[in-house]
């Protein structure tokens, strides 16, 4: 008897899963109203893309002031990276020199020579650090300004896009009817499975 019931149960389960698959598709189509908002198309899932940036991109398409602001911030960030990169090339070369010099000094066996050259390296390094302190402070200020600017822009973009996502939500109210219907079908199948002997 068990040998007959098992294949029968499996057949019923497979048949109901296939049937539910097509029903699930229609449920998904009817989950939200088909009301259109300007952002409906842009809110379709795009893998790897931030939805705030997607919505904001839609907004700046039609607003030249926002587009100009976005370009200005992007250009400023690009320029900051370029300027700092040029300074870092010079700073890095000097730091590399002093690190390598200290490494080479370790291989000197004569302790007097070693002490003499170590003192010369440290004096040179200290003088250089005091010379570039102002430049390093300015680089730190550029980085701090860039961080602050990006923070403020993130806040601005979020505030600007909040009303848009709320419009989208209002235009697409979720319905529970299809879910209730589907849950009832699941319960019927569960009851059938429980009653199988």
Automatic annotation (TrEMBL):
The coiled-coil segments of this chain are: 59-93
Alphabetic keyword roster: Coiled coil
Q: Which domain of life is it from?
A: Bacteria
Record's protein name: Lipoprotein
Protein species of origin: Chryseobacterium piperi
């Amino acid at each position: 008897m068990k040998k007959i019931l098992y294949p029968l149960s499996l057949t019923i389960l497979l048949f109901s899963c296939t049937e539910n698959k097509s029903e699930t598709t229609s449920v998904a189509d009817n989950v939200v109203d088909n009301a259109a908002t300007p952002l409906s198309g842009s809110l379709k899932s795009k893998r790897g893309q931030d939805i705030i940036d997607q919505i904001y991109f839609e907004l700046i398409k039609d607003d030249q002031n926002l587009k100009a602001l976005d370009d200005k911030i992007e250009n400023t960030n690009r320029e900051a990276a370029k300027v700092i990169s040029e300074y870092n090339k010079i700073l890095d070369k000097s730091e590399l020199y002093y690190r390598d010099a200290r490494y080479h000094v370790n291989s000197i066996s004569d302790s007097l020579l070693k002490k003499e050259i170590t003192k010369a390296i440290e004096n040179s390094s200290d003088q250089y650090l005091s010379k570039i302190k102002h430049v390093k402070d300015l680089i730190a200020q550029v980085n701090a300004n860039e961080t602050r600017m990006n923070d403020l822009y993130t806040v601005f973009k979020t505030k600007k896009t909040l009303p848009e996502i709320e419009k989208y939500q209002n235009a697409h109210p979720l319905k529970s009817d299809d879910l209730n219907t589907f849950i009832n079908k699941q319960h019927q199948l569960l009851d059938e499975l429980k009653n199988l002997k």
